[in-house]
Amino acid sequence: MRPALDLVTRSKRNDAPALSESSLSSRFDAVRRATEALTAPLSAEDCALQSMPECSPAKWHLAHTSWFFETFILESALPDYRIFNPAFRVLFNSYYQTVGEQYSRPRRALLTRPNLEEVMQYRIHVEQFMKVLLAQKQPLSDRLSGAIELGLNHEQQHQELILTDIKHLFSFNPLHPVYQKSLAEPSPTPPNMDWQGYAGGLVNLGHDGDGFAFDNEGPAHKFHLTPFQLASRPVSNAEYLAFIDAGGYQRPEFWLSDGWNKIRAEGWRQPLYWERRQGEWHTHTLNGFLPLNLNEPVCHVSYYEADAFARFAAARLPTEAEWEHAASNVERIGNFVESRRFHPKPMAANQMQPSPRKMFGDTWEWTGSAYLPYPGFNTSAGALGEYNGKFMSNQMVLRGGSCVTPQSHIRASYRNFFPPEARWQFSGIRLARDA
Questions:
Q1: Entry pTM
Q2: In angstroms, how far is the first alpha carbon of the chain from the final one?
Q3: In whole angstroms, what is the distance from residue 290 CA to residue 398 CA?
């Protein structure tokens, strides 16, 4: 059975023209090559393993992103499409129940076959047929071009996951594998944290314009904000260390009940990847095991830790509505995956950037908002309707992107979401408070 080609994107708003086939073709090539460039430093052994159920082997990411184009586009759009391997329909299905069965997510590392070489052949096979589709003389329908654009944004999400997952995997190796060697950089002292005030009132939220957006970013709607203040920059490692030194992980008054239970059960006493050696703090990075840079934005903290720190700082986390309103007029510049630093970057006090700074890139920022549908949201019919909507439970929203997010992938309305205990993503903290 071929899955219905139902879209969850809203890329054709206000009668915006569809992307041309040539534009889609060049973008398709760029995204596919970027994925393979991120896995180029990895061995076949690196690509085969997973470190926890929430992570996936890099080999699986490489195959699943091809499975997406094969399953949701090629099977429906090309009558003469030849399926590469029927078994892949189950092996590389992530969570699409309406497509069929899925192989157990926690056991993906057991899939020693297909090997990495066959997975790369699978990618080539899918790309060859995608080029046939994109080269057809008959223009693609808006529905089909929208599905391809969704597939490209889906692959960009997996580019980020390849890096976060391999970082987590490498952290368990006592040899401290280095994904890449970085050049030493100066570490400027960040500017003082100050507060930007916002008057509130009735504001516009959600994606309401030309270009691609995921379904969970809409519908655009009005929302009333009470006056609030937002910190001018993210929380630094030095500021979070003050929380640790003040006994923050031993003081229940700062913690939500679930968070307190979690840190006691897991023995958390510092952010993920921090380790104290010979009296000095170090951290595991994709650039190796390095001394902790106190001037960088803190990252790899859970929602529970971010919320506890905010209470310690006599503040709170911003709501996602406050964050989006503040970011709506901020230029989308920052430290993204294209910089190939793959780590948060300190910001100099004299860096010319209007407040609030670092809204985009470096670290995803936890908000105090649960991941819920916007007013008027409806899940699309068909398999692709499972993309976002069914996860609107037991998740918290993050905003802004990180140092491993593609710059073209992020926007002010983008809603990322993870369970409140998640720490392996590049997740950080920006404070807010009532006016």
A1: 0.94
A2: 56
A3: 27
